[in-house]
Amino acid sequence: MKKVLLTALAAASITVASAQNSAVNSAILNHKNGTLDKAQADIDQAIEHKKTKEKAKTWFYRGVIYQDMIGNPIYGKLTNDQTPLVVLESFDKAVELDGKDGEFGKQVPERKQMLYGQVLNQAVEFHNQQDWDNAIEKYELAHKVSPTDTTAVLYAAYASTADQNYPQAIKFYDTLLDMGHKTEDVYKAKVQLMQASEATDEEVMKTLSAGLKEHPNSVYLMQEELKYYLKNDRADEAMAKLDNAIAADPKNASLYAVKGNLLERKNDLKGATEAYKKAIEADPNNFDAYYNLGVMKYNEGTEVNNKAAKMDYATYQKKGKALEAEAKKYYEESLPYFEKALEIQPKDQATMQNLLKVYTRLNRKADADRINKMLSSNE
C-alpha cells in the first residue's frame, strides 16, 4: 500500500511540473504562431510558478515575448513604458540563471542589442518631435540596456541642451567622460554649458585643465583657459604655461598661434606678429595664424584711418592724405594673409567678409564683387 501511495505522489508531482512546463512550451508555441497575447498570458503564468520561475528558459522567453510585442501593429497596444524594463529584467535573469555561455544566456547579447535599437528609435522619435522629457527618458533607458555604448548618452546631452537644461546636459557629458569618451568635442561642449550656467571660474578652469591633458594641442581649450587666466589677472601664469609647452613641443604651430593671441590681448602687437609667423613656419597651412595676422594689420589700418576721419578740415588738408596712405599700407599688408586664410578654409565666412572690406578699401571692385558673390552663395 505504501509503495502504491509513493508512486501516486510521484505521478502527481510529474503532472504538476509537466503542467507548468507546458505553460512555457505553450508560450513558445503561441509566440511562434504570432499570437503574442496568448504567449504573454502563458509566460506570465509560468514566471509565477515555483516549478518554472527559476528556469533560464522561462525568463529568456518572457524577454523574447515581451520584446516582440514592442512596436507590433496588433499587440503593441498591450505594452507600456515599463515593457522595455521587463524585457531587460528578463534577459538579465536568464543570464544569471544560465550563465553567459548557457543555451539561453548566449542568446541574450543579440537580443539586448535589438532592444537597444528599439528603445533608441523611440528616443529619436521623441527627439524629432522635440518632446525632450520623453526623449531623455528613453535615451537613459537605452544606456541602461547597453552601458558601454555612448550614442544614447551623447544624444541625451544634445536633448538636454536643446531643452536648456544645462545642469542635466553637463551630467550626461560627465557620464561620457566617465565612460572614457574623452573627445575634444565633449570637453568643448561641457565648457560651453558651464559658461552658460552658474559654474564658477574655478570649476570651468578645472574642466579646461582636464581637457588639455587629453588634448594638449586643442586651440579652443587653450584659448579658453587663457581667457580665464587673463580674467583672473593670471596672464603671467598663462604665458609661463605656454612657454613651457612650446619648449616641450617647439614644432607645434597651435601653441605659437595661441601665444600670438595672448600677446595680442596684452597689446604686444610686435610679439604677437612674431608668434604668428612662427606658427606659419611650423605649419604653412595654419589658418588661425594667417587670419589673425590679417585682422591685426587691418585693425592697424582702421585705427590710422579713424584718426584722419576725426580731423577738422584744416588739419586734414595738412595731414589727412598722409594718414590715409599709411592706412592703405596696412590694408595692403593684411590682404595676403586673408587671401591665404581663405585658400586654407575656402568657405570661412569671417575671412570672406574681411576680404570684402579690404578689397573695398583698396578700390578693387572686381575682387569685392567676386567675394560678395561667394558670400551670397554660402548663405
TrEMBL record:
The keyword DNA repair does not apply. The keyword Signal applies. Residues 1-19 form the signal peptide. It comes from the Bacteria. Keywords: Repeat, Signal, TPR repeat. PROSITE patterns: TPR (PS50005). InterPro entries: TPR-like_helical_dom_sf, TPR_rpt, Ycf3. SUPFAM superfamilies: TPR-like (SSF48452). TPR repeats lie at residues 253-286. Gene3D superfamilies: Tetratricopeptide repeat domain. PANTHER family: TETRATRICOPEPTIDE REPEAT PROTEIN 6, UDP-N-ACETYLGLUCOSAMINE--PEPTIDE N-ACETYLGLUCOSAMINYLTRANSFERASE SPINDLY-RELATED. This is Tetratricopeptide repeat-containing protein. It comes from Pontibacter ummariensis.
